[in-house]
Amino acid sequence: MPQLDRIIIFGQIFWLFFIFLVAYIIYTHFVLTNLSKIFLVRWWKLRKDTTQIVLKQRLTDFLVESNIQMLRKIYTKIKSILISLSKKLIQNNFNKSKVVLKDLNSLIIQISLETALYSNKSIKKSGTYSHWT
């Protein structure tokens, strides 16, 4: 076979390795560095996004939990105030049931307004509150 002739086989092997070495150097220097940069940037962006998502989730959970605790405290205080006031109104105005209901309604409206004015959360959106919306 003329391709495997002993006279020209060493030149063919030399040029094969030389061209392979040049192609390998070009590939590793230009192509692989760009690919590695792309993968590194994607990895950092994904890592940054996941940490931000986790931090936002933890902050949202904390805010919702503190919101729930604050609302529970407010509701227990309002409940105790309303119970004590209703007992006092019933004792004072035992025969005037319409006046008691009217006073209780005005008291509930006043407490609701004060809660809405002095709270930084909306009463309507208290169940779906999110820091980013």
Automatic annotation (TrEMBL):
InterPro entries: YMF19-like_N. It is found in: Mitochondrion membrane. Residues 2-58 form the ATP synthase YMF19-like N-terminal domain. GO terms for cellular component: mitochondrial membrane. The chain crosses the membrane at residues 7-27. Its main location: mitochondrion. GO terms for biological process: ATP biosynthetic process. Keywords: ATP synthesis, Membrane, Mitochondrion, Transmembrane, Transmembrane helix. The keyword Protein transport does not apply. This is ATP synthase F0 subunit 8. It comes from Pyropia nitida.
